[in-house]
Specification:
The complex is a heterodimer of chains A (374) and B (388).
Chain A lengths: L6 E5 L4 H12 L3 E8 L23 H14 L3 E5 L1 H17 L6 H20 L4 E3 L5 E5 L4 E5 L17 H5 L1 E2 L7 H10 L21 H11 L9 E5 L4 E5 L22 E6 L4 E5 L5 E12 L9 E6 L7 E9 L2 E11 L6 E6 L2 E11 L1
Parallel strand pairs in A: 1-2, 1-4, 2-3, 4-7, 8-11
Antiparallel strand pairs in A: 5-6, 8-9, 10-11, 12-15, 12-17, 13-14, 13-16, 14-15, 16-17
Helix pairs in contact in A: 1-2, 1-6, 3-4
Chain B lengths: L3 E2 L10 H7 L15 H21 L6 E4 L2 H12 L5 E5 L4 H12 L3 E5 L9 H7 L4 E5 L13 H11 L2 E5 L11 H4 L3 E5 L10 E5 L14 H4 L7 H20 L1 H16 L5 E3 L10 E6 L4 H10 L2 E2 L4 E2 L5 E2 L2 H5 L4 H5 L1 E5 L6 H20 L2 H10 L1
Parallel strand pairs in B: 1-11, 3-4, 3-5, 5-6, 6-7
Antiparallel strand pairs in B: 2-8, 7-8, 9-10, 10-14, 12-13
Helix pairs in contact in B: 1-9, 2-9, 3-4, 10-14, 11-14
Classes of the chains: A alpha/beta (374), B alpha/beta (388).
């Protein structure tokens, strides 16, 4: 259990949230060690076509490391940068590229949390003598006595809820993880940053995918493949309606996401939307808005948190993208590592490659990666 | 907390005598060495005395010493000062970034660059150097001692090759100076780099030996300082500090202090090699007396360095990049180590200030830390269980 003299490694990004976490834990008297994960070298793609000439973007920028170091110095804790560039490229950037190539729309933040932040960070933390890892995520970890399980719950500040990106945490990881901001609101966190006189108190929040400058993932894909000496993404193909009629050509499947309306480049009577992207045939299936709705989806690569297994159908609310209001549904195990989600009401634009996360009230039941919909 | 510093190849503490020598040159003797008045003359003679001390350490003439801002500038001045578009440069795969990236830059500017590989002990084969020569080879730049392994390169043989081929030879002796005798005539080099803060002098000062008659093009434009080879008002306190450090290093070598350092290093190395699944990088090759580079199988070197630092022992792995993260060592991978093994390697480097107590501190701390890391290493446990 956590005692005052526990050693805690804090993942510090140089932003307000993780800086306040470090300062709070230090003020509580814990031995705090600041760690920044160096994940991506922004210089790598600088100057490639479509990329900024100079280093931009937030991920692992020298400015952020500088900020984290200054905060560590202010609050008086040891601080180190650990290099996980190779693993980040292998486990996050590569899959991100592959997902687009196969017609899915990935969420690298979840991949990163599952494969890097909580996996590697916990290993490093234990190796350097820290019992636990704390991050600036807005979420709560609670031990549930009756079930003997570690629960992941939504934070007090629902607007900042990041549990959607954390569904992959294992029991072992949760047992060693702390989210000290789970009970606070963002304005409270900023106020604390000011009280602790942290230099980053007024720093704006980051939103975009950290390694993609300006959020333009298409340019990133092109620049990355060029750097790797791989052919550029050329995935043009047919634009097809639901009844199989070819109505035109498109410029490449990675330019589309499910539910997208604009940019189809085709004039028709009623608006057309992307319904499905087929990686194998490179077809983009289009149709009317009502065709975007479906009641069921299946997930794979699942992780369960509040329950050990799904022995019978369970009533939950399911979130299918970060900005989606959880919708009432039943979940049911339909095969080894396969869960079927049946919504009460049809949901719009269920997108393969995104995660479906299951909630029971504020508790995360679990989640998985969306394979397909009916 | 008791803190023990065993990272003297990164930098060394300034010796008290060095600081004492420097101190008056910040305040009392503040003159510009180029001024004609008393104040200038005073500092001028101090600068020239320092030049003599450095020359004595390297066995050259004082006029052959150019003071610079450090090892990187000296390396850059030697390379950019000599090589031009169309020239061929021969270097090695284990050079310091100051040489490696200078050559890389010239590679983009129309020079041809050949990087000689090293054997598994980390040494360049002089025959490879000979074979790499071309009619347009202008410069050989190969270090005297490697910063990560301490392995000495066959610079005297390379010097002969350069001499026979009438090619300029530059050697980065930053990690050799003060640790072993360095004689520019025995080496047969035309240019040689040293740095103040690696020999218990201050940071921000270095020197380049330039053999008489070797024409190098200056990189900085300005006044006619340093015989027009390096413009800019002299860093007088730095120069005084470097001079004093050179003098002390020379005297220590004459006394045979390097044997004492070697004995401490050997004690540390053999104790750490008692830990299972370890190896010495550069084993069997001649090395400077203060350095040992050891790999600990299945360890993440980065974690070991942090864990040791948190317990008060400062050592290092690889090279720190701009963020402070560790990049896998190009030196160790050039020696044929797998990336995992390179990442599992730690450098311990001793300085004049280190005592037997310091070494004992490391001998007590490292084994238990390695054991803890291995207990938490999925890789090590997998390998260990397969062995059972």
């Amino acid at each position: 259990m956590l005692t005052a003299d526990s050693t805690i490694a804090v993942a510090m990004s140089g932003g307000v949230d993780s800086s306040v976490v470090a300062a709070m834990l230090r003020a509580e008297g814990h031995n705090v060690i600041g760690l920044t994960m160096q994940l991506w070298n922004q210089r790598r793609l600088a100057g490639h076509e479509g990329m900024p000439e100079s280093v931009q973007g937030r991920c692992c920028s020298l400015d952020d490391v500088y900020d984290a170091r200054r905060v560590a110095e202010t609050i008086g804790i040891p601080y180190y940068v650990v290099n996980h560039e190779e693993r980040f490229e292998r486990d996050v950037v590569r899959p991100f590229v592959e997902e687009y190539l196969s017609g899915r729309t990935p969420i690298p933040c979840s991949l990163c949390n599952n494969h890097l932040k909580f996996d590697q960070l916990l290993i490093v933390a234990r190796q350097i003598g820290a019992d636990r890892v704390a991050t600036g995520h807005y979420a709560q970890v609670v031990f549930d006595d009756p079930s003997g399980r570690w629960m992941l719950e939504r934070p007090v500040d629902h607007a900042k809820d990041q549990t959607y990106f954390l569904f992959g945490l294992t029991q072992e990881q949760l047992s060693r993880t702390m989210f000290p901001l789970g009970g606070m609101t963002k304005p409270e966190v900023r106020e604390l940053a000011r009280q602790y006189a942290l230099v980053i108190a007024e720093k704006p929040d980051s939103q975009e995918i950290c390694f993609v400058p300006g959020g333009d993932y298409k340019k990133f894909l092109d620049a990355y493949l060029a750097e790797q000496g791989e052919p550029p993404l050329e995935t043009p193909g047919e634009m097809v309606t639901t009844d199989g009629t070819v109505i035109g050509e498109h410029t490449g499947i990675h330019n589309f996401t499910v539910g997208q309306r604009k940019g189809l480049g085709i004039a028709t009577g009623s608006p057309l939307y992307v319904l499905q992207i087929k990686g194998d045939t490179r077809q983009v299936i289009v149709g009317h808005d009502e065709d975007l709705y479906s009641k069921t989806l299946t997930t794979h690569r699942n992780n369960l948190i509040s329950v050990a297994e799904l022995t019978e159908p369970m009533r939950v609310a399911v979130k299918i993208r970060h900005r989606h209001q959880p919708a009432p549904a039943m979940i049911e195990s339909t095969g080894p590592d396969q869960i079927q989600v049946t919504f009460d009401a049809p949901q719009r634009a269920i997108t393969p490659g995104q995660a479906a996360v299951f909630y029971d009230g504020d508790a995360v039941v679990g989640g998985g990666w969306i394979e397909g919909r009916d | 907390m008791r803190r023990i510093y065993l990272d003297n190849n990164a930098t060394t503490p300034v010796l008290p005598e060095v600081l004492d020598a420097m101190r008056p040159y910040f305040t009392e003797h503040f003159g510009n060495a180029s001024s004609i008045h008393h104040h200038g003359q005073e500092t001028r003679s101090a600068v020239e005395r320092s030049r003599e001390s450095v020359a004595q350490l390297l066995h050259c003439r004082p006029s052959e010493i150019v003071f610079t801002s450090g090892g990187t500038e000296s390396d850059n001045l030697a390379i950019f000062g000599l090589a031009h578009e169309g020239d061929h440069i021969v270097t090695s795969t284990i050079e310091h970034h100051a040489v490696m990236n200078a050559c890389k830059h010239l590679g983009k500017k129309g020079c041809e660059i050949t990087s000689i590989p090293v054997d598994s002990r980390g040494q360049v084969d002089p025959d490879d150097v000979k074979r790499a020569l071309r009619p347009n080879t202008k410069l050989l730049t190969i270090m005297t001692a490697n910063n990560e392994t301490g392995v000495l390169q066959p610079v005297e043989e390379i010097g002969k090759i350069a001499d026979e081929g009438d090619i300029y030879f530059h050697t980065d002796a930053v990690q050799a100076a003060g640790k072993i005798p360095v004689d520019v005539n025995k080496i047969g080099c035309d240019l040689l780099t040293i740095s103040g803060h690696k020999i218990h002098g201050p940071q921000g000062i270095g020197a380049l030996y330039v053999r008489k008659g070797t024409q190098i093009e200056a990189m900085l434009y300005g006044g006619s300082h340093e015989r027009q080879r390096r413009a800019g008002t002299e860093n007088v306190p730095g120069i005084i500090g470097l001079g004093k450090a050179a003098e002390l290093a020379h005297a220590a070598l004459e006394r045979g202090d390097d044997q004492k350092v070697a004995a401490l290093r050997d004690q540390l190395e053999s104790a750490l090699r008692q830990i299972v699944s370890t190896g010495t990088n550069g084993e069997g090759a001649p090395r400077v007396p203060n350095t040992t580079n050891i790999y600990f199988d299945a360890i993440e070197g980065e974690s070991l360095v942090i864990a040791l630092d948190l317990k008060g022992l400062a050592v290092s792995t690889g090279a720190a990049c701009s963020s402070g993260a560790i990049e896998p060592s190009h030196v160790l991978t050039a020696m044929g180590l797998a990336p995992d093994q390179a990442r599992a390697s730690i450098r311990f480097s001793l300085g004049k200030q280190n005592t037997k107590d310091d070494v004992d501190f490391a001998i007590n701390l490292v084994p238990e830390t390695v054991t803890r890391l291995r207990d938490l290493s999925p890789v090590y446990n997998r390998v260990a269980s397969q062995k059972v």
